[in-house]
Q: What sequence folds into this?
């Protein structure tokens, strides 16, 4: 059982915020909100799909995903049209919850 943002109870786990819409600027650092979970037990590990575009020049060049916090961050090196990324949080029992991040990179 999980408490939804509107104060009602849900019988499924949630990641909060459930939806984010982010516009990042090429060459400028950004970070999406850290996710929190409700209805999941113990530590939560996050994954993202589809894979993020990354630069091969340096390990920290471009954008990457934090498995510990469920956030996307970095300094984009390329422009990108709006893409929806699905973040899945999994707890130690195998229970899951998802959130969506819509991200685009502009000049």
A:
């Amino acid at each position: 059982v999980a408490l939804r943002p509107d104060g009602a109870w849900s019988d499924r786990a949630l990641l909060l915020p459930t939806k984010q819409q982010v516009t990042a600027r090429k060459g400028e650092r950004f970070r999406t909100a850290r996710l929190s979970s409700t209805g999941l037990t113990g530590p939560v590990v996050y994954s993202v799909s589809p894979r993020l575009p990354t630069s091969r020049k340096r390990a920290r060049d471009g954008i990457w995903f934090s498995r510990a916090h469920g956030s996307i961050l970095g300094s984009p090196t390329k422009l990108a049209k709006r893409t929806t990324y699905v973040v899945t949080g999994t707890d130690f029992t195998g229970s899951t919850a998802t959130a969506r991040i819509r991200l685009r990179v502009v000049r």
In short: Residues 46 and 89 are 4 Å apart (CA to CA). The mean pLDDT is 86. The two ends are 43 Å apart (CA to CA).
